Amino acid sequence: MQIKLLTLMLFTIVNCQICIAVSLTSHRIFLDKEHRTESFVIFNRQLQAENCQLSLQDYRFDKAGNMGKVIVNNNGVLPKNSVKNLVRFSPKKFEIKGGASQTVRFSLRRKANALASEYLSYLSINCGKSFAKQTDRGLIALSPRLVHKVPIVARTGKLSAKINFSEIHLDNEGKLAFKLNRSGSRSIYGVLEIINQTNDKRVNYLQGVSVYVPSDYRKFDFALPEDIDVNTLRIRFTEDKKYGGNLSITTDINL
Fold this sequence. Notes:
8% helix, 2 domains, 1 helix, four-stranded antiparallel sheet, Immunoglobulin-like
């Protein structure tokens, strides 16, 4: 039992060290004809060097905005909305010394007669270091890894989207629940806020909210203060202009 507890403690310590080892200056990359280049910095906050490998991966999304399993390429055939043929990035493999950083740069390729469309893939950032562990059978090389996944969104023309809220209600736990609906030819990305109508102050909020094509909606629920009247609140979604959107919608709650 003591051996199992010690093993669990060591595993937890190693994983906690990995979690704080690598950090990013951005968790989303957006490219279009007006913003053809972008970059972010990976920091190694540990004393030891980190070896990193970067690659692009594609995922399926259902209508409710849930991410599925990674799509395995079939004989080199890519999903229609993959950025792999549109976006270049470098470097793909590197070592970051302890306390140092590495800049990764992205560029959108120019394609003649490209149809207006949106493309989405995820950049897998796989970083870690190797060390040896003594066992009864000798030394075993271990490589604890931390994988970040950063969405890469590329647009090749002017696209549009529409948004609205629906199914607003209080659930069985007293949380404010609703759907954020998306339609059109592009994704949406921004912040969701629950606002007090009397003083326009936030009651609750969630940043980094996205609904990607082909998803139609996402469901949300927000905890509320116990003494607040839900009908004095409003829901607001505002797109982040930095990532190619300027939509905003506000709905007063009336239950």
